[in-house]
Amino acid sequence: MAQPLVREDAKRRKVAEEEGEEVGTSGSGQHLVNGGHPLGVKPWGTLLFECTASSGSPHASAVRRRTEGLGLFAKMEDAVLIQVLGMMKPEELCALACTSSTFYAYASHDELWRALTFDDFATSSTEFYATWKETYCRNRLRGLKGSAKGSPPCNGGRIGSETVYSDLLYQSYYCANLDLPEEWVSVENVPRRSNLSKEEFEARFEKPNVPVILTDVVTKWPAYEKWRNREYILDAFEGETVHVGGYQFSMEQYYEYTDNTNDEMPLYLFDKKFAEKSPKLAGDYTVPSYFAEDLFQVLGPGERPDYRWLIIGPARSGSSFHKDPNCTSAWNAVLTGRKKWIMFPPHVMPPGVHASENELHVATSVSLIEWFLNFYQQTKECEVAPRECVVEAGEVIFVPRGWWHLVVNLEESVALTQNFVSSANLKHVLKYIKDAELVSGCPLEQRASLHERFVQAMKEQRPKVLEAQEEKKGGQLADLFASGGKGAFKFNFG
Hints:
By secondary structure, this protein is α+β, with helices and mostly antiparallel strands. 34% of the residues lie in helices and 15% in strands. The protein folds into 2 domains: 34-177, no CATH class; 182-438, Jelly Rolls (Sandwich). A hairpin with a 5-residue loop joins strand 1 (24-25) and strand 2 (31-32). It starts with 8 loop residues before the first helix and ends in a 12-residue tail after the last helix. GO terms for molecular function: cis-regulatory region sequence-specific DNA binding; metal ion binding; oxidoreductase activity. Its main location: nucleus. This is JmjC domain-containing protein.
């Protein structure tokens, strides 16, 4: 089973020694549990510290070996080269791998073989191994989906033993094997509360729109004990598939994958239809009273946007920075494992994140660990410090509307999350979904009409709540006009 991301250093070394692992270092005081890259790949920066017995600089020698090993392909930057290799068939990749040590390293890049595995084999039949290349070749031997049984695409071994220098290849391996430094998970500035009344929660956290961790909710659910058992989860999804990274897996397959994966950012089970597939799971929890008001319920189960998900993933899986859909608030309950959260308020763009003006398109680091390596330190220099915490099993975190958040599993984790619309954030949701382009979580043909359908349903089922919002808005307008319109350009109805 995949190891947790964080270990105390002494314990990590002892465990590594007992298990016969090599403990490698990155040069920056950070440790790799599995030691150096299995193909001897190193980042270009290590040349600054290496000596060579041959004439000329180590850098010139490395550049020459890359040119000789890749031929005309050496003119390409690594990112472009990987894109080109991603267009090739398995047999073509393996033919290149047999030409040089350098090509062997590039053609063995695991992301290439993950794509080939999903392209060539039905996920319902795939067996998973330690690397995607091994997974592909072993399933090819099994003759899945019409492949040539008994004929793996590549039998060629590595040619020579020259060191290959590539930041791209090394970064992927480094991120997949790095122990998360303790300083990355030690900050705890999200308050923890228990025995809160609903009125206290609304006044201190929901209306001010700030996060909080509630410690006395999840432990009362039957799910807190039952979902710790893999067999219970397996039985719950017997005969069903679950949604994992855009693919459909059986639950047995997904656990097989999590037990074997060494991916930089493992595939994450994020299933919005778990309750329909397994009613007994839906019966194992109740929505906490703090979040019971969910006004999207007026639309009915077939009409409302997606709102609840079962989430399961190994260490290093998680979600990069995003805001929850449709300006809703959310709660996220951890049943097993531990989750690191980093959160920024709506008006603060996290370091390393680039979003379009309407925030529909968000670009950030390829993997969560890469973001930590490149940008976590910058959070210490932000004018507004992020909220950070590790949510433990048995706790639930309130995620306020509009907050940017990143979540990474420190251990294999099982969690449950729901988005909701309450009176406190109704006006923001109404404003947001007026623009059909921004609506998510429902079929395309329903997005343009969501605002109209929601308002009509509110008028019929919750008229007083809607009227209260209109009165509040009218009062704000009256105050503005009474002031003679001063500051009108700064007035924000959102």
